[in-house]
Amino acid sequence: MFAAIGLIVLLGMVFGGFAFTGGDLHPIIEAVPHEMIIIGGAAVGAIIAGNSMKELKQFGAGVGKIFKGPKYKKQDYLDAIFLVSTLMKMLRTSGPVAVEPHIEDPKSSTVFADYPKLLKDDTLVHLICDTLRLVVVSSGTLDPHAVEEVMDNSLKTHHHDDIRPADMLQSLADALPALGIVAAVLGVVKTMGSIDKPPAILGAMIGSALVGTFMGVLLAYGIVGPFASRCRQVVESDAAIYHVVKQIIIASLHGHPLPLVIEAARSGISHSNQPAFADVFDGMRGR
Question: What is the pTM of this model?
């Protein structure tokens, strides 16, 4: 929502300010479609040329995140703590045989069924199930530090993949001023071919060419650059829930008491989504 509001404010202040100071918007409005065909077309072509279909789909999903914002809220972090703590308690009290059906087929698990939103996140489900599967097959002889290293590698790989749309947007923002210059140069070339025209016509043609430079800079620093930053913020915000899962599993494998396990999980959550200690502890009492 804020991305859309920001766009409205940006365009309103730039073009509104120009008109307020006596500028004529008509030449700009007339030139923008032609310049955008060149700049936008070159930008789209560059993205297609530099990426596979997989990356292009990720790019589209990343743009969607800019307008949707983070998908996980405070209740989702509570649910993640409850879900993983329940599985770790089952592993500790009932043994690997009790927890194995839940991690082998999460979609049929009565434990996972209580958290349908989390069950839709394949990355989160695989992180939980694959890690606990390691613990189960090793009969509890794994070093918690080794498990933590495996989880860190998994999270690093996922983050590298998930942050790619933000990197693509930033690369596009860096290229747009140059693409604007390309459009401007083509406009100048067109103008030079009409050098015998009256000054009024030449002035309009030169002004139209300069709109290309203006659009390239505006798109780069006013729209695409901030979008890249916002995309990165959303990805990093949603990644916090995976670290919550990691902290609970590792702290439990170390044999820490429940209050310390809870605090290890809570400490990695941003204040805006961080549940109170009492909320987590009270919720755990009935599980």
Answer: 0.85
Confirm if 240 and 270 have CB atoms less than 8 A apart: yes
End-to-end Cα spacing for the chain: 37
User: What pLDDT is attached to residue 47?
Assistant: 93
- The b-or-e profile of 99-137 (16+ CB within 10 A means b, else e) is beebbeebeebebbeebeebbebebbbebbbebbbebbe
- Are 48 and 228 contacting, i.e. CB atoms less than 8 angstroms apart? no
Per-residue pLDDT band at 287 (split at 50, 70, 90): low
Q: Are 130 and 245 in contact (CB under 8 A)?
A: no
Count of CA atoms in the C-beta half-sphere (13 A) of 223: 17
- pLDDT of 286 higher than 80: no
31 pLDDT more than 90: no
